[in-house]
Amino acid sequence: MSFRAFLRRLLQYFFQGLIVLAPIGITIWVVLSLFNLVDDILPNILHAVAPSLIKKDLEGNLIKIPGLGFLVVIGMVLLVGWLSSLFAVGRLVALLDTVLEKTPGIKFIYSSVKDFLEAFAGNKKKFDKPVLVNVDATDVWRIGFVTQQSSADFGLEDHVTVYVPHSYAISGITYIVPLSRVRSLNNVSAADAMKYTVSGGVTDFHD
User: Fold this and answer.
1) Most CB contacts within 10 A, which of 18, 25, 129, 160?
2) Whole-number Å distance between alpha carbons of 175 and 177
3) What is the DSSP letter of 1?
4) pTM higher than 0.90, yes or no?
């Protein structure tokens, strides 16, 4: 392999890793930032409203209540989720979603985080159809999840898109395969299939 090909391969791996890590990293950063923000301002608010509830240490700083910021952030997320289910607020959220989806620069990050989260939860859950898919050799099967029932956009009308997660990793591979090489796992839940795959087959079903 030439040095240029080696650099090209490294660049490819870098961008693949960035695509995988960006949604997760941004989500964790946002959640931790909310925790820190609430922990910083909440004691001041409570002290102003009810001075007797929040004490000060020997240096005069307000003492933080462990876990209170976490509970407040969880409550805020639940409140936003409930408000977004209302019709009027839902229209506003949809409008904001459209704006962010069309904003250059922000579009890629926002769409990646949104699609990643909605793949696991929400109204557009994608990893909910566990299957066995044959992509390597005869009678060798992988556990995956059908994410698109049709691949007509690629000129493959009789093919489906299957995402196959890796064991002990957050990455996976997307395959477009003929429907004849896919077997539905009707007696296995999506959660059990994902747990079994990610654990490398160590975890038993229904544990």
Assistant:
1) 160
2) 6
3) -
4) no
